[in-house]
Amino acid sequence: MFYRFNDEERLSRLCFCVLQLSRTGTAFGMRIPGSEFAPATGPENRKKLLRALALFGVD
User: I need a surface site. Which of 11, 27, 49, 58 has the fewest CB within 10 A?
Assistant: First the structure.
């Protein structure tokens, strides 16, 4: 049996990944429908990506 994650679960997992990767100092980016973020490091990158996830689907 295959479980499909809903949008909220996917966003939650992406937030977790952003937080974990930002602790490593490794450059990373993200692509979500309607937005693409180039790989970067630091607190500003983390803030930008978490903001994009928080506002995903909000018009």
Answer: 58
